[in-house]
Design a protein that fits this description.
Blueprint (H helix, E strand, L loop, with lengths): L1 E2 L12 E2 L8 E4 L16 E4 L10 E4 L13 H22 L11 E4 L8 E4 L8 E4 L1 E4 L2 E4 L4 H16 L9 H19 L3 H11 L11 E2 L1 H10 L10 E2 L20 H13 L26
Parallel strand pairs: 1-7, 5-6, 6-8
Antiparallel strand pairs: 2-5, 3-4, 7-8, 9-10, 11-12
Length: about 300
């Protein structure tokens, strides 16, 4: 997954709708990424107040009609809607608290397409070349199961991170350097991790699992475990063995011109893969999951197209 400057064919976003909100109305969502389907025990959703997507700071909107706010079961379209909506609101509140005057590069409200077709991917774009501006998420079948990238808080908050960085430093979006692209991916990864830490139950779980040693492999360091599991079905060497990316790793910074990926990319994929690969060497020194001085990005999303 990545910021997307160009794409030839995509349908435009559906009409916007904002979910009703009440402090007394609860919705179900994931605490963080729903995880590898083979994980035992399976993750249990948490209940949180229904989000107000059009509220400040950093309002967003999901295309289509919003379902009534209540507790839905995982596997339903309604659950996926609120899994995405709560992640968007959580990320906007976090970044808006840090940069209160921030506004989106694509307009007053960030558009979101929850299911834009078949792909194991997600991206942010300013629009153009057939793409509607905003965040795009997808679905795809793998191993007899259908995966939805917009269901994962990790994926949603990573892509939201691209939009945040574009609002802070718009000149980086089209910069023709692998370093700039890698920084964008690294920032998205950090957005996913830092936003997850806003959930108190998740913080407590991480502290318990790691015994306070945050540079251990944990739910904090592992990003997009579910999407990683889906990609491994057909591309087992394209992602980490336990997630899409893991912040706890032994990568060191190298000259971007020497970055290599484990798979042999076709020419049209080479630049994108190099930027994702190099991003892993950029930001673990600032990652809450890595306290040792290594220059890696914890979990930059992969783009397979």
């Amino acid at each position: 997954m990545a910021k997307r400057a160009r794409r030839s064919t995509r349908r435009s976003a559906a009409s916007a709708a904002v979910p009703a909100t009440s402090a007394k109305k609860l919705v179900s969502t994931w605490e963080d990424d729903p995880g590898d389907p083979a994980t035992v025990p399976a993750p249990v959703p948490i209940s949180v107040p229904a989000p107000t997507l059009n509220a400040q700071p950093l309002p967003s909107r999901i295309g289509g009609k919003a379902p009534a706010p209540k507790i839905y079961q995982p596997g339903t379209a309604e659950f996926r809607y609120y899994a995405c909506a709560t992640s968007l609101r959580r990320g906007s509140d976090f970044w808006g608290g840090i940069v209160p005057s921030l506004t989106w590069e694509v307009g007053k409200t960030l558009p979101v397409i929850l299911d834009d077709g078949v792909d194991l991917n997600a991206f942010y774009t300013r629009g153009g070349f057939g793409d509607a501006p905003g965040l795009h998420f997808f679905h795809a079948a793998a191993g007899g199961r259908t995966f939805f990238s917009g269901e994962s808080p990790d994926v949603v908050c990573h892509e939201l991170g691209h939009a945040i960085l574009d609002a802070i430093r718009p000149q980086l979006f089209d910069a023709q350097t692998i370093e700039a692209a890698a920084f964008h991916e690294s920032f998205g990864d950090m957005s996913a991790m830092l936003t997850a830490l806003q959930v108190e139950s998740f913080r407590q779980r991480v502290l318990t699992d790691t015994q306070g040693v945050l540079n251990r492999n944990s739910r904090l360091s592992r990003l997009a475990e579910q999407l990683g599991a889906a990609i491994r079905v057909e591309h087992p060497d394209a992602v980490d063995h336990d997630s899409l990316r893991n912040a706890v790793n032994s990568f060191f910074y190298r000259d971007p011109r020497r970055c290599r990926h484990r798979r042999r990319p076709t020419p049209c994929r080479r630049n994108r893969i190099r930027s994702h690969a190099c991003s892993r060497r950029r930001s673990s020194t600032s990652s809450p999951a890595c306290s040792r001085p290594r220059a890696t990005a914890p979990m930059a999303m992969i783009s397979l197209t």
